[in-house]
Specification:
- It contains 22 helices and no strands.
- It has about 575 residues and is mainly α.
- The chain folds into 2 domains: about 260 residues, no CATH class; about 240 residues, no CATH class.
- The longest helix has about 40 residues.
- The protein is flat and about 70 Å long.
Length: about 575
């Protein structure tokens, strides 16, 4: 008995929704599910950390307010906690949207597949919008339901069951609507960029959004211990925070909770207006981008190939040396980083981690004047960011962007392992050094003066070169050409080593630099240069990759973990049908 055919809307919905969770760098569905579990744990952890950080102080404020008959103090702290959790909800769903950035919009592949299909356009757009709604629900409800439950328990224990219900509902409405707003803005932004600037520019913007949302997510945790002690009077001034979307949804929470404070009325009105406007904009832009994609269903629009800036590229080739193999390796690495969104993700996430740690360290300064004197929390900023970018580049090099290129490089450069290393080293430095030096020139120089900035520029360059050379000792292949080994970086289990490396590259050298200020700068630079040259010499001696070999037994995928198409049953059935049709005609 033949199974009933599924409606096209349902089939397309399942296809579009499945694309959000597809990955070309995971060896099997089991590995993909494991990765998704760790991503969910990563997103849930900041919420629990915030609960631990904020609510003990809130309970102390409740006791203090009862003693001194100051109920307004409790409301102030309650508003600050909601402000933090609304921000957390917004950056979490924004980060998820940034991770599936390429699948938020219709691309050339969708146009090629769906263009000739006998399916109405409104069915395709409707299925895409349904998939986006399902993704939003999966990204928003689990996290906010858990946080809302614990929030209501902690904040309503002194006002009874009715207070628990009111706080839970108000919290859920505020955080979910905030997440809907951010998700709709990101979807609209993706569609506008693809229509106005093209798919290439739109794809490149995804990495910047990932960086921004990871910084926001980590800052919710790292910065909250330093900021939650600040009096929340600024939240009570709509002229100060009225432009910030988080305050809009804080006002919505207060209105649902029944607050009598009048300054939250206009903020709640802005939230109720912003959500439908952003949602309608996302729907209209999705329809427009679908029409634009269908126009290019036959011929793909020409786009200029993007290459790093001329000076940046020329400097990288100069660092690679005069060998053609080294320069080819450098060009291949830089082009892959520039064009492949998959390899940009670990670089953006690690860079965001470095920025979040730097922001948390800066909160130790009580005033801006404290930052105008040479201190570790100021001087280590470029080294800290450069270190984490280098860690991200290392993790990205193990992603198989072009596995077939391994044979090309090895066939063209047999016996030239040093050239491979030189090219990969030059490309890594081209990614690591510019952001770090920009921090020195535009961040440290205005604070500490150009004399200190000049010495620090040389010191930062030497330390990061030494760190890059030490990192290259662990890379025995041309970047992006090796089959991916799941969990190679093992950040979840080896984070103490990464933390020690952060202090070895960023904190300890800066402390030595602080002791050298006042006459010992030349000796410090000479010592650092000596260590860097020793590491560089060791790297050149170690850079001897072996010839192509068969994969080791440990690298083989087990049968029960392999993902197959399972078309073996389809082809015989189709062959039988063709044979029966031929017999009936004969």
């Amino acid at each position: 008995m033949r199974a009933a055919a599924q409606p096209p809307l349902l089939v397309l919905f399942r296809t579009f929704f499945g694309r959000f969770f597809a990955s070309e760098t995971v060896t099997s569905d089991i590995r993909l599910r494991q990765t998704m579990v760790w991503v969910l744990a990563f997103l849930l952890t900041p919420g629990f950390v915030l609960l631990i950080q904020l609510f003990p102080a809130y309970q102390a404020i409740v006791v203090r307010a009862r003693r001194f008959q100051s109920p307004g103090l409790v409301d102030d702290w309650l508003e600050w906690i909601v402000f933090v959790f609304v921000t957390y909800s917004m950056v979490t769903v924004g980060l998820i949207a940034a991770f599936v950035w390429d699948a938020l919009d219709f691309d050339h592949r969708d146009a090629m597949v769906l263009g000739p299909a006998p399916v109405r356009g409104r069915t395709i757009v409707g299925a895409k919008l349904m998939a986006l709604g399902a993704l939003l629900a999966c990204a928003t409800l689990p996290i906010n339901l858990v946080n809302g439950f614990f929030f209501a328990i902690e904040t309503a224990d002194h006002i009874g069951a009715r207070g628990f219900a009111v706080h839970f509902i108000a919290f859920l409405i505020a955080t979910v609507t905030a997440a809907v707003f951010v998700f709709a803005v990101v979807v609209a932004m993706r569609g506008i960029l693809s229509v106005v600037a093209g798919q290439h520019v739109a794809a490149a913007a995804g990495s910047f959004l990932q960086f921004a949302f990871v910084v926001g997510l980590l800052s919710c945790v790292f910065l909250s211990p330093a900021v939650w002690k600040i009096p929340s009077a600024s939240l009570n001034n709509p002229d100060t925070v009225g432009w910030f979307p988080t305050s809009w949804f804080l006002g919505l929470f207060e209105r649902v909770r029944g607050s009598t404070r009048p300054y939250f009325v206009p903020l709640a009105a802005r939230a109720l207006l912003a959500v439908p406007v952003a949602t309608v904009a996302a729907v209209l832009v999705s329809i427009l981008s679908f029409g634009r994609a269908m126009q290019h269903a036959i011929s793909r629009p020409a786009t200029a190939s993007w290459m790093p800036a001329t000076i940046w590229h020329a400097a990288a080739r100069r660092l690679a040396g005069g060998r053609a193999v080294a320069r080819a390796t450098c060009d291949f690495t830089l082009l892959t980083i520039a064009r492949n969104r998959t390899v940009q993700t670990p670089i953006a996430m690690n860079a965001a981690l470095g920025v979040a740690i730097a922001l948390a360290a800066l909160t130790r300064a009580k005033t801006v004047a404290d930052l105008t004197h040479p201190r570790t929390i100021v001087l280590w900023l470029p080294l800290l960011v450069g270190y984490w970018i280098a860690i991200g580049v290392r993790a990205a090099t193990f992603m198989p962007s072009e596995s077939a290129a391994a044979w090309v490089f090895r066939a063209a450069g047999v016996g030239r392992g040093v050239a491979f290393r030189s090219g990969a080293r030059a490309a890594t430095l081209a990614v690591v050094l510019p952001p770090s030096l920009l921090i020195v020139w535009f961040g440290i120089a205005p604070l500490l003066g150009w004399r200190i900035a000049a010495w620090h520029t040389a010191f930062v360059s030497i330390v990061l070169m030494a760190a890059t050379d030490a990192q290259m000792l662990t890379i025995r292949h041309v970047p992006f050409t090796e089959i991916y080994a799941p969990g190679h970086a093992r950040l979840r289990t080896r984070w103490p080593l990464y933390a020690i490396g952060m202090f070895a590259v960023a904190a300890w050298p800066v402390r030595a630099e602080l002791r050298a200020f006042g006459g010992g700068e030349v000796r410090l630079i000479a010592a650092a240069l000596t260590v860097a040259l020793l590491i560089y010499a060791a790297g050149r001696r170690w850079a001897l990759p072996g010839p192509p070999t068969e994969p080791e037994e440990a690298e083989l995928v087990e049968d029960d973990e392999a993902t197959v198409l399972n078309i073996g049953r389809v082809l015989p059935a189709r062959a039988d049908a063709i044979a029966r049709a031929a017999d009936s005609q004969g």
